Structures
1.
Amino acid sequence: MDTLISILHVGTAVFIVGPMAIIPMTGLRALRSGNAAQVKTLATSTMIFSWLSLLTFVFGFGAMSMAPEEYNLSFTTPWILWSSILYVIAFLLNVIVVVPQMRKAAAAIAEAPEGAAATKPTGYGAIAASNGIASLLLVVVVVLMIWKP
């Protein structure tokens, strides 16, 4: 059973957390091209993947609890604690900053007059910075999982 939980943990990390980090980057491209519908859809997708990423978090705790006693794992094991903290920060950045800014930018593009000169889209910097930080934090989580200091 511990192998199944570990596989689910890694699988959801790859197929859910990965898109959670990548989709907003596609949203930035859609912002630059002025495609409001695509930005709105990508904001919704980012929100869904962000909430689904909690499965990875849960499966991680399941894998930790089923690990053999010889590994002496607990929530206070430094690499598990830091991975959890960094994941929560990345999750919150996506849910609290990235998705609302993408929705606001999509609304601004949709309300812009037809043929308006393309300028830097509303919230572009907040989306890029927040998603960049969240993605970097998720990379550090992966490194911690592999390295296990």
2.
Amino acid sequence: MNTDDINLAYKVRHALNENLDALSVSTTERLAAARALALSRKKADAPRQALPAKRPLFDIKALFSGPALARIAVAAPMLALVIGMGGVYQYEQQQRLAAMAEIDAAVLADELPLTAYLDHGFNAYVESQQRQQ
């Protein structure tokens, strides 16, 4: 039943209950007989289904079941790949920063000849000097 049907049923019941005391005895008897007949024809209530038992918050058996293992088998390599790529990126960034820091330190310490500042291949020169050391 939708809400409109339920509201109509409540309104009809309310209207019938307002004039209940004014009904004649014969009408009351006919209504009682109709009610008894309706109750005899009423279908038996369906048995209620038992609620499922509460599952524990963390179920080890469910974790190692077939579908869960399939999800883990897909997720674990993906997670390892993402972590590995992140590690490689961090390593490369550290290497790049270290090289730039060495160049800055050499410039600030005036360990480079003046011709290095005028050369367009300045970075190549600094890298070749680092390789020689």
3.
Amino acid sequence: MMDNEVISVLKTALRSWVCKKDSLSKPALLTEPDIHDLAVATKAGMVPPPCPEGVREWGNLRELTKGWIVQQEPDAIPEPLQNRDFEYLATLIAPSCSDAQSCHEDEKLVFAREHLERCF
């Protein structure tokens, strides 16, 4: 079950996102189940470490949003979600993570840590 604080933070941050989930749906604001699904998928995507190049795969989050076209602000151009958007979601929920392993870390620190581990 997802923490209510995480859901609340995402609701506030994503309240203006208008999303068209597939070619048959009409653009609409994200629903509470959408926010919950994003929270779960984002948290799951934060658990595995990024690949050696410092990029995360985002697994379930990428799969959940693969057909989405999102207008994040009223005057913004609608577009598919990108890695920067996934990183943004991760930074929103990171302060609420209780398990340090699943919390977002600065990508440069992750890369440096992995490099040092390989040296020894």
